[in-house]
Queue: 2 jobs
Job 1
Amino acid sequence: KAGVTQTPRYLIKTRGQQVTLSCSPISGHRSVSWYQQTPGQGLQFLFEYFSETQRNKGNFPGRFSGRQFSNSRSEMNVSTLELGDSALYLCASSLGQGASGYTFGSGTRLTVV
Amino acid sequence: SQQGEEDPQALSIQEGENATMNCSYKTSINNLQWYRQNSGRGLVHLILIRSNEREKHSGRLRVTLDTSKKSSSLLITASRAADTASYFCAVSGNTPLVFGKGTRLSVIA
């Protein structure tokens, strides 16, 4: 079966712009979680969605938002980009909240200049 | 915080040796999971051990869980150069899966 697909793989944006990242989970997985990974902070939890509802949100400013569609695909949006938003953004899908292992996508490498 | 903390931060061994990584956490958990990440890529799920299990095996991997000490260990036997990666533990309870900062394993051929 197809894995978790994240698009785009690489992105370069300018400070102040906004960006939308996409994640298509494994077929049948209704839970999608997003993480930000940086060398200094490690893997930080952004959001978790299940059946189009945001179940949990990490400690990130309101510039970070997300949503999930009826087909379980998810998007995250970052507005008013800052240099510190440069990171690897990882999406993971699973059957439910931590009860099974997560399957991660390859990530989107965002660089803000 | 429910976050797992891996130890050591970095580990360098010769091919063929065993590698042991440890994870400690602070709260009660439903399960604990180990993941591997090759440089700049997504994480790969290795093994999940439930809170009522004490040991689990998968190929060359052996995971133990001691809920009384709130700790887990990952043992990779007969390591190979291809095992070079970062390894993360993640604890699952009543909050989303939270990852530690990882152990960077280097296996030298």
Note: Chain A touches chain B at residues 4, 6, 33, 35, 42-43, 45, 48, 55-56, 58, 88, 90, 92, 97-107, 109 (CB under 8 Å).
Job 2
Amino acid sequence: DAKTTQPTSMDCAEGRAANLPCNHSTISGNEYVYWYRQIHSQGPQYIIHGLKNNETNEMASLIITEDRKSSTLILPHATLRDTAVYYCIVSSNYKLTFGKGTLLTVNP
Amino acid sequence: GAVVSQHPSWVICKSGTSVKIECRSLDFQATTMFWYRQFPKQSLMLMATSNEGSKATYEQGVEKDKFLINHASLTLSTLTVTSAHPEDSSFYICSARDRTPNEQFFGPGTRLTVL
């Protein structure tokens, strides 16, 4: 599976949009982009996934560039409860390899 | 989203004993379940992939005789840590893939402490 690169940490003000970037320049055609998050001492929570097209659900939006080499997870109105480690994962076979992720801290 | 449960949520045991952790998919049938381990301040590491009715596939470096995995039904997988030692103390997390392609859901995790 292709590797991903994410910033180590980011800050966001409560109520503002949080935009989390992810680079996956070696992604292959059949690999999906998944986003999960993990709040301290809990299991990861599924957020969203996509292949080529942008996706939106009740939690977030996923923007994938046309060349698929990078993506951005958007939390439209961040709340304090969105403080977590966010993982961007690329996979084609359901096996998820977790990197270090981005620690998003939402500040009051 | 789909719900995956784990039991127990935490366990403390003596060195040399065995501990069984259950992972259940509550509202869907999971053909494949995964077991992860997470040490403090580290990311999740995949230990093994479990398919219902067949033997688990272990990742490199994971001892299959020490970490016994049973996936007897479409809603239950168990991980048994045999002859546990303090270095096995960790956060064990399972996940389950439902029949909808490419969606995988995680349990809340089990914190194992071996004294």
Note: Chain A has no helices and nine strands.
